[in-house]
Amino acid sequence: MINSKTIDLIEANEEGMVFTFGRFSPPHSGHELLINKVTSVAKKLGYEHGIYASKSHDKNKNPLKYNDKIKFMKSSFKKANIVKDSSLINPFFVAKKLSDQGYKNVVLVVGGDRAADLEREIRKYIGHKDPKKSFNFDSFRVVSAGKRDPDADDVTGMSASKMRMLASEGDFDNFKAGTPSDMSARDAKKMYDLIRKEMDVSESLSTFLDRMDIDTPENIFEQEALTTLSNEDLVMLGLMEQEDKPSIIVLTKYDDGDLSDTTEKMGKSCKKMGLNFYPVSIDDAYIVDKDVDDSQVVIHNYDGGGKKITLDTSNSVCVPRGSVLTNHSGVGILSVVQDTDIFTVNKLSSMELCNNKLATAIVLERNKIASPKTALVNNEESVDIALEKIGGEFPVIIKTITGAEGIGVSLIESRESLLGVLQSLWKFNAEVIMQEYFEIDHDIRSIVMDGEIIASSKRLKGDGDFRTNKSLGNDTEPYSLSEEEKTLILKAARASGCYLCGVDHIENSEGKYLVLEINASPGSGAEPFMGYEDGEESEISGQEMVDRVISHISDKSNWQATLKDIGSVEEVSIEGIGSMDARVDTGNEGYNVLHATDIDTENGEVRFVTDTGVQMSLPKRGTVTINVGSGVREDRPVVEIDMSMGRKKYKNVKFSLADRNENDFPILIGMKFLKDHNFRVDVSTKNILEAFDIYREYK
């Protein structure tokens, strides 16, 4: 049983981390107790927390591949921070990385049978004489999550070995009963099947028919003959249900009736996988309000030939191509689709961000991602200021804010040429940025999907042209990324908010890597690629890369919202109060908190005075009880107020009211709001969401 006795730990006054490490092969109900212990200790101390899994993979004891294991853990333990880093092969590696990241106070939570040994062994490395081995912790402690009772009938008796045994014996009912409480039945079945596959456990047809509760049709085939049938044959005979595969729609432009190369490849992938595929012409298609509800969306004239499609919102995927931003129809269709339950690979906000080179440059700068110096030049008076900002030397690069495939990009050798080019562009109302120039012979395009790099290629500079775009006829070749490059690329992809994107980067003459831009609609023409899958590298074609994309997005277990980064401090605007800085607090699991004084509740109304002196009266939406320390508990009224942050307005946000005069910020943003809106906190950065506000100031 897990020991629920309160643990006295050090007071949190510096950056701290609570973590655990395990094989989780597979994750089961007993792991919930361990993970709940990690999150409760972290909350008590005001520390961050992390759950780390072993990458071990073998037929018997570790049948789940690392990526599959992480996906199941994320879908099962939604309130926990599941850290994906296959380089951390044991708790010692995790401790070393935390030390290198600057964490001074670290707590490790493990099962009771391992606690003493791990604490003794890890302490040997605290202040070790070899800097490469030393853990630079001010405090370290191992906390026991309790001892497991293998004979118990409840979750404390569950183990990974029991789960593997149930899978090998074909006992799905008891296997499902042992899965984490938040794991869906679909994921439980998928995990069960994967374990059986990796353990080479075959299921006889009779067992299959018994589980499906279908009688053997003896008048068709003998039992032995049935065992030779494929899944397709069984579906045709009515012995197996047809898999409910999703429909794939691609929002795109038809070029004189033809589709782009990448869209055609998507169609080929869908055909191979038995998926319905609909390329939607944004110049012709339209949606009527009455045809949109919680369960379906009808797109009329999707092909320009009068045909319409009815999409099941719970079983469809939308892939927007870059052309959706070229007209109001494309933007409108994407807006409607993403506001339903249809899984949309890239949301409109991410598409717009990547389409705007200035906004992208600002986001990269805000996230401390190395990139070329960039400045807006919107009139002749701003030329010298912009030139000075990017280094003051020629040549420089001039780009229109929007554009793709190298269009609208110029290399300028002198101030005279610069003014001439700018005046020509301004004549057509073009918005222009200036960037510092780097002499390179190639750049690297990497494709990132769902937080993973799946492919990369080197794009060589053409003769007589400084641009590297494949669309200009330049050569490409597979490229193997270094770990440093991978880290930079993934950070840029996260900053964009894209589920699928292309990240372009270069290496300058000093050996430093810089991100050039992020493309929310990457093509497949820069082939051949170096493909990355399950830790292995191999050369793949553009079609194979697209196959991997379609295979991934057609799997519903991968339909998770892409997290957006947010700083530790962000400016917010509260309806009726005004704008102010808010503290983003990952240690607060409850509602947001708003500073208020003279709080008075009567007849279901709450009257109070805000930090700006505004007197407000709002309906009371509940009460929360907060432990403010030393055993003192405080009841706080809860109200709902509209709040804007970044470019988005959030309706009816719940705030508890409290006197925050002793705090640095009048508003605290809690984890409940962050999780509800898919934010991830970058504690090293502030005001990430100001990027678009800065862009508007430039304009």
What is the element layout, followed by pairings?
Blueprint: E1 16-22, H1 29-45, E2 48-53, H2 66-76, E3 82-83, H3 91-100, E4 105-110, H4 112-123, E5 139-144, H5 160-168, H6 172-177, H7 185-198, H8 205-212, H9 223-226, H10 231-236, E6 247-252, H11 261-273, E7 277-281, E8 296-299, E9 309-312, E10 316-320, H12 328-338, E11 343-344, H13 348-355, H14 357-366, E12 374-377, H15 383-389, E13 396-400, E14 409-412, H16 415-427, E15 432-436, E16 442-449, E17 452-460, E18 476-478, H17 483-496, E19 500-507, E20 513-519, E21 529-533, E22 536-540, H18 542-553, E23 564-567, E24 569-574, E25 578-584, E26 592-595, E27 597-602, E28 605-609, E29 615-619, E30 623-629, E31 632-645, E32 648-658, E33 667-669, H19 671-676, E34 679-682, H20 691-698
Parallel strand pairs: 1-2, 1-4, 2-3, 4-5, 6-7, 6-10, 10-11, 23-34, 25-33, 26-32
Antiparallel strand pairs: 8-9, 12-15, 13-14, 13-15, 16-17, 16-19, 17-18, 17-21, 19-20, 21-22, 24-25, 24-31, 26-33, 27-28, 28-29, 30-31, 31-32
Helix pairs in contact: 11-18, 14-20
Give structural notes:
The chain has 699 residues and is of the alpha/beta class. Strands 16, 17, 18, 19, 20, 21 and 22 form a 7-stranded antiparallel β-sheet that branches. The chain has a 6-stranded mixed beta barrel with strand order 24-25-33-26-32-31. Helix 11 (261-273) packs across helix 18 (542-553) and helix 14 crosses helix 20. It is globular and about 70 Å long.
